Amino acid sequence: MLDIMHNTPFTDMNDSEGETQSMGYQAFDSAERVLDLLAALVAQIKVDPARVANNIRRSCITITELADSPVRREGLSFREGHEIAAAVARAVVAMEGDLVSDGYAPFLDAFEKSTGRETAIDAATFAELVSPEYFVAVRTRFGGPAPAPLDAAIAGYQTRGKEFAVRLQTLVQREAAAAHQLKQRFDALKGNA
Known about the structure:
Elements: E1 2-3, E2 8-9, H1 17-44, H2 49-59, H3 63-74, H4 78-94, H5 99-102, H6 104-115, H7 123-129, H8 132-137, H9 147-190
Antiparallel strand pairs: 1-2
Helix pairs in contact: 3-4, 4-6
């Protein structure tokens, strides 16, 4: 017999296909159990705001804004901005300090060494620039953590989730109809129609 689309002979089914399909079904069954466990775990997660604040404070997580702000505000190159920020992060981590309260003095020193001049960024502005609130607020591009892009992303995920739910329901209905049709035809072959 010929495959009309490709003008080649049909080949017989591989005898091991049943084993392969069985393994595939087992993999999906395992994945479903893992996802159920993950959903149960995620539902139990609690965020400790004090611990989050301490981790932010100790990790210099907002250092990239310190690298970018002098570029925008003082006309530095990205390389200069990032070299200054790296020096500040090294100094704050070495003293086991806090970027907001302990980073300004190392910033002044690194800025002057890098540029040969003083910065126009005062201590209050520095503290604002490296604060988590400012870090989030200025990241307004799609995919950023500011409220507007985050709301847009969540709305997109919700829309996609609804689309997936509709597709899933359609597939479930098709599978049930196919199983019913298979049973009817098998019963007909056995003479139990």
